[in-house]
Write a structure and sequence with these properties.
3-stranded antiparallel beta sheet, 2 domains, 254 residues, alpha/beta, globular
Length: 254
């Protein structure tokens, strides 16, 4: 269980900055927008958090998983002036495992620090439907990382992760790590498979319905390839059916 957050697949959340812009269908009913509006704050204005929050990981002495920017996006453009300081905090806390999840993978390459990939840096993308999976996962696969993961949450459509087009007429089974078809990129060893998949329905009073069949198909894909699968929640707090239960974490080498 999470100790300092309600997000079950992490231990702590860290928000060095707050605020975001909606960029895809998964953002429609964003909980951050809902909460910021409740507090009378503008959710679309990106602001740096106060020093106590910005520097919070420096106080955590025990190993833990840390989800970065649950109220923003680590790679959002407005955070460019502050990101180097955040990278330095990550560098100084190797006992913490940072889970960096983004809806802006196109921004990653130009914003990585010297010495990347860090051993304590997991990199993931949100893929709430097939369109976003097709758009974002190829960029993830082309980016070095100690561990790559995909969050299919909120799941608003069926997603097939087994056939991702990485360009040059090459189709890549991103779960099994197998290339198919011609193409110069297929001949290299640069692409890595997805190491972890998270699945979840939408929460909140206006939650869209996630079909059980969508989640079950995703779980089957992971089972076939041996990819750890974490079922977080169904839509609007509905109980998780027995066939979908399972909260696996990736195996990380020391």
């Amino acid at each position: 269980m999470a100790e300092n957050t309600g997000i079950l697949w992490t231990d702590n959340t860290w928000n060095p900055w707050q605020g975001c812009h909606k960029v895809s269908p998964g953002c429609l009913n964003c909980y951050m927008y809902r909460d910021k509006n409740r507090y009378g704050q503008d959710p679309a204005t990106v602001i740096r958090s106060k020093p106590a929050t910005f520097n919070l990981p420096l106080k955590w002495k025990e190993p833990a998983k840390v989800f970065i920017c649950s109220w923003s996006d680590f790679f959002i453009e407005e955070a460019d002036p502050w990101r180097d300081e955040a990278w330095e905090i990550i560098r100084k806390t190797p006992h913490l495992t940072y889970q960096i999840l983004t809806k802006r993978p196109e921004n990653i390459a130009a914003r990585l620090p010297k010495g990347w990939p860090f051993k304590n840096g997991w990199l993931g993308v949100t893929a709430e439907n097939q369109e976003m999976a097709d758009r974002r996962i190829p960029i993830l696969l082309l980016t070095p990382a100690a561990l790559r993961f995909v969050s299919v949450e909120p799941m608003v459509g069926e997603v097939d992760l087994t056939r991702i087009d990485v360009g040059d007429a090459c189709t890549y089974d991103s779960l099994a790590g197998v290339f198919q078809g011609p193409g110069i990129r297929c001949q290299g060893d640069d692409h890595k498979k997805i190491d972890w998949v998270i699945c979840g329905g939408e929460s909140g009073p206006e939650a869209r319905t996630m079909e059980e069949d969508w989640a079950e198909y995703l779980k089957v894909q992971c089972a076939v390839s041996g990819t750890p699968f974490f079922m977080k929640q169904m839509s609007a707090g509905a109980p998780i059916p027995e066939k979908l239960q399972g909260q696996e974490f990736p195996k990380v080498s020391a």
